[in-house]
Protein 1
Amino acid sequence: MDLSQVLKQCKHLAQPYRIHDGDGFRLKQIDPGDTQDLPADKKAAREALEQGVELLSELQQRLYAQNKWAVLLVFQAMDAAGKDGTIKHVMSGVNPQGCQVSSFKAPSALDLDHDYLWRANQCLPERGRIGIFNRSYYEETLVVRVHPELLAKQSLPPELVGPKLWKQRFEDIRHYERYLSRNGVVVLKFFLHLSKQEQKRRFLERLERPEKNWKFSASDIRERGFWDDYMRAYEEMIQETATAHAPWYVVPADHKWFTRLVVAAAVIERLNGLDLRYPEVSPEDRQALAKAREQLLAE
Ligand code: ATP
Ligand code: MG
């Protein structure tokens, strides 16, 4: 594998979708069906992803050995955009000990008794690890915004709930991610950008193919009815929270093979930029190792 070549490809793949300054961002700037004119050759895509996965695994070993940085990958998307499959494929080569996935569903009674970052905070990756959030605290600016009755359930003091609430949440999230980045947690955020048409196709497939039935839930269709509200919420979320230290990647999601390549490329590029190294062995350590070897051989 020619490393510099792969890294160059990664940059090429990921950069068009990287938003590090949300000002003026519009969702329509990125086409969900985009594949950068790569041929839809599944075998070639699989081979490229395999190379990426191998490189990712090597980078993760160094991340783990160095034990300084932690990496947080946040995934947000509409239903059927391919979050689960992307996480599974991109992380397939990574040592499970160095990686943890947390899925955020509707909050429990205990969660609701705390501030909304509380449950996420408990799932942050340790140094040396990659943490994946399958949905995240961003739902607090998405589903909770689209369905105001969910906000009512949060029992916030009424004087704190006003028209400024969403701006304040964005501000708090920006500061939270700034805080994380200053503590050595590298934050990368992925919005898998699916078209409404392709979602329909995937829902129909789930309904028509028995082995896919389990993936379907009636609430998915209900949320589809709020499509435009969600798109507005996503757009503003990206405008407000895309920063240099915690960028959003708006990844075209109508072609799964392409989504996976872009996500792998973005993670590889960022990890490679951390200049991860195995810890150096000091001369004293080296002496101790030599002595241990002698002892073993003398047995
Ligand atoms: P997914 O839909 O992510 O593939 P799933 O189908 O296994 O996962 P669901 O039971 O659908 O899981 O749980 C996800 C649901 O939880 C989503 O509809 C999401 O909007 C909701 N959710 C997540 N975080 C929150 C939150 N903070 N407040 C309210 N609802 C939330
Ligand atoms: Mg669901």
Protein 2
Amino acid sequence: MAKQEDVFKKLISHAKEYGFIFPSSEIYDGLSAIYDYGQNGAELKNNIKQYWWKAMVQLNDNIVGIDSAIFMHPTIWKASGHVDAFNDPLIDNKDSKKRFRADVLLEDYCAKLEDKAQKEIDKAAKRFGDAFDKNEFENTNPRVLEYREKQKTILSRMAQSLEKEDLADVKALIEELEIADPDTGSKNWTDVRQFNLMFGTKLGASADSATDLYLRPETAQGIFVNFLNVQKTSRHKLPLGIAQIGKAFRNEIVARQFIFRMREFEQMEMQYFVPPGTELGFYETWKEKRLNWHLALGLGAENYKFHDHEKLAHYANAAADIEFKFPFGFKELEGIHSRTDFDLSAHEKHSGRKLQYFDAERNENYVPYVVETSVGLDRLFLAIFSNCLKDEVLEDGSERTVLSLPPALAPVKAAILPLMKKDGLGEYGEKIFNELKYDFNMIYEDKDSIGKRYRRQDAIGTPFCITIDHDSLTDNTVTLRDRDTMKQERVAVADLRRIIDEKTNFRNLLSKI
Ligand code: ATP
């Protein structure tokens, strides 16, 4: 089995074994691409949400947060374009009976070409050593140029065919490139068809009078339809940002990458309402701000890159993704879109209500333009979890698995571990627990050897272990063990709150943005 697959399998089983993520409805054999977050997963997820919310709402005096309903008037999805155009092109393999996204098959093919180009570059870098000029090599080496040119031709033909709804050509392209089902090698494909990703449901008691509704496929529309409510009640001038965290639902055709692509997931979206004509400046600012927010997590700058969209969605005049290096390669983590006045204008048209802002400085009414930042909470969880999960070989040759989460995000901030329950050590530990519990989420554990207990805390990413021994009872000191360095030091119980706070406070992340 490929190493990459091994790493991914280990990650999924670690997430389950340590209470982060369980397959949903597991005792009924699960439900495809739906997952439940366990006790540690829920804490980590909540901490990620807090990091985002604080960075958006708390640190910006012109951004406010809302929580709109999942069910919305069905006309909203007509206005937004989702009823007519929220489709993915699907293709089935007739032999394996597996379903794929036609565009993803082509994109994966191009990713392989890019891998080949990278290999050429890496080989040359090794050969030439310090004298290597990457830029020149990329621009002159015939093989690299050929791989890149081929990618460009494929992606632009795909974009044009999708734009023209020429699905026969998308299939022709897959056949010309001899793309096969990655699992079985079969090239026996059906035609490409469009598939709407929205889940339908019904509102109302009787079958005749029930209204057809959709589960929202994005949280953004709940922000657009509330724009004037929020603007008027908050009395903010433009630029005004409205942020929201919430569930979204998409009937994804292919959902095989754990929590990367789910059918029920959470988004953290912010719509920034600005005067017309200023949107592209704000778009650039938000691209930079959002990348900095990710970088502050300390997962390594080399793991992020921008991907500027060539094919723009019908509502956008500029768009880029922040891609992250997941265990299966660079993939979209966050989207940043300049959405023009498309959404508000469409809602004006479909609702018959004016959605305009009076700009006192310009002395005019207008429909604001919007820059959107949209990040998937579960994808971010996967990015952080996969990057932080490490196997380490220690000096004495033994191994440990450690989840080196940014301390502010760790589900448990400190574990209180009396060497034994008896002799009053347990009670002393409980006393410390009860003092610190108002400030930090903690665990108290007095079973198993101390070594085993340390390993368990490393595996869930707990920054500190606090060990209580007999001396603690007389001198009010404890042993504090650091997750990352594994160094142990003797500290006064009275200093614990300050030390834990210094390491785990959100300020550590927020001040780096
Ligand atoms: P993709 O191209 O991967 O399908 P998208 O471009 O459709 O994603 P957007 O509509 O821009 O995604 O949604 C914004 C963010 O929501 C994405 O960057 C991603 O992090 C997250 N997201 C979208 N679909 C899913 C999903 N099915 N499961 C988990 N997260 C998702």
